[in-house]
Amino acid sequence: MSSFDTDVRLCLRELVGESPPEADATAWPFLGQWLAERNLGLVPIAEPASFQWPGRWLARMRAAGEDHAVVMFGSPSGPLFDPAGAVAAGATVEEGWLVAPLDPALPRVHPYGTGVRAGTVAGLLVAPDAEAPLIAMDSVVALEGQGLDGDRYADGRGTFSGPGRGYQLTLIEAEALEELGLPWELARRNIVTRGVGLNPLVGRRFRVGDAECVGRRLAEPCAHLERLSGPGLLRPLVHRGGLRADIVTSGTVRVGDALVPLD
After folding, report:
1. What is the pTM of this model?
2. How far apart are CA 109 and CA 30, in angstroms?
3. Are 63 and 91 in contact (CB under 8 A)?
4. Mean pLDDT for the chain overall
């Protein structure tokens, strides 16, 4: 782990109030994913060297050929928390970010609620390659640490494939799609559920069929989805676009199987 990665972890503990877990992938993308699980994100600052903010923000500073992270504060801003003493060593500000809520109307702790109940699998869909049409299946094998067998994300060929958390499996509620009149294939999610609110599963383990999974963050809509499936989908699917999850234990999932929260 680089000195910058170590400093960032310490600075995020200062900013967020809890320590990120050890990265199971490239540290910087991993930390962004970890923050997203808490309704938080990193907003780049255009001109960090002259940035003034009567609050805390995160800076990447360079001194003696090494990068360090520092928590800055104030207008004008100065170092509030400098774990490596970078400022005293003459460091200059190279980049900066605000840690900001993804949705300011939601809390950071349990932003999507806590009430969960069991539901069922209404549909299963896979696509062999990025942007390829989704194919409905009666059953699929969920592969631990990979994705659904035969799906582009299990093979690392999805549009958003990459290291980190929440790229193995996506779920969406049938009720949300039916309200929009959107065919399941156009939502481009793997598992369509019925009878369960998926949002409170962020950060929680659940069993779907024979597989055990963990919810990572919401599968929010984006311009890419509108390009593939049609305009006008972004607004009605905000906070209703489903769930990104990882597969903890392999197992077969069939249409009609139960989805059961485990904690």
Report:
1. 0.82
2. 19
3. yes
4. 88
**Pairing verdict, β 191-194 and 169-173:** parallel
What does the alpha-carbon distance between residue 136 and residue 190 come to, in Å, rounded to a whole number? Answer: 9
Each residue's pLDDT tens digit, 171-208: 999 999 998 888 888 888 999 999 999 999 999 999 99
Instruction: Count CB neighbours of 132 within 10 A.
Output: 11
Closest alpha carbon to 262 in 111, 116, 142: 116
Q: What separation, in Å, do the N-terminal and C-terminal C-alpha atoms of the chain show? A: 32
